[in-house]
Amino acid sequence: MKRRNVEAALAAHGCVPANNSGRGDHDKWFCSCGAKHSANIPRHTEISAGVIASTIKRLPCLPKGWLQ
Prior knowledge:
about 70 residues; three-stranded antiparallel β-sheet
């Protein structure tokens, strides 16, 4: 899946990138629920299914079907 689609879906559900996202080869995204859950999204063009599964586990407040 394209990284821009994953990031757009995260933003659409209230998640925000960390302020220091310009460092390293991953962007850290925080959940908007206030529980300080976070997930790292690599800056690759394509995001693997394993990264998507990890994101779902790390951000439990995302609704089912958030990536569609």
